[in-house]
Amino acid sequence: MAYVVADPCVKCKYTDCVAVCPVDCFYEGKNSLAINPDECIDCGACEPECPTTAIFEESELPAKWAVYKDINALVTGAKAPGDIDKSKLPGNLAAAADSVTAWPNITEQKKALPGADEAAKEDGKIAALTFEAP
Questions:
Q1: Which of 22, 61, 71, 79 is most buried, judging by how many CB atoms fall within 10 Å of its CB?
Q2: 33: phi then psi, degrees, rounded to nearest 5
Q3: Side-chain half-sphere of 68: how many Cα atoms within 13 Å?
Q4: Phi then psi for 108, rounded to 5 degrees?
């Protein structure tokens, strides 16, 4: 099983996790990160490094964020749009899913997004998630 980046990362994009990943399986979107499930070796090095507690082992992903399993696979190129259940995506993301281009791989730590510390306190940020690359 792989690790999954979930809702707390949206609008923050701290990259402490990227710096410790031994297999470079993180991908960068405009306002979030994702883990490619085919590349993740389930080592768990990233999970404790995340300041927003956004990274979960797939079997421990909270049910309210289950859609992030498909989102991570889609934006990293591990799954094609036809391979996920788009009905589980919010409207803005479902409409954009067919035209998703895989995000670029990120291998080095970068600065968090402006306002990340405040955004880290927010709940339910999926409406702010975008499939755009940085």
A1: 71
A2: -120, 165
A3: 30
A4: -130, 150
Query: Mean pLDDT for each 10-residue chunk of the chain (134 residues)?
Result: 97 98 98 98 98 98 97 97 92 93 97 97 96 96
Contact at 8 Å (CB) between 83 and 91? no
Residues contacting 16, CB < 8 A, separation 6+: 49, 50, 51, 109
27 contacts 33 by C-beta, under 8 angstroms? yes
Across-strand partners of 28? 33
Residue type, 35: I
Q: Which fold has domain 3-104?
A: Alpha-Beta Plaits (3.30.70)
Question: Helical H runs in the chain?
Answer: 16-20, 67-75, 91-96, 116-119
Cβ 54 vs Cβ 89: under 8 Å: no
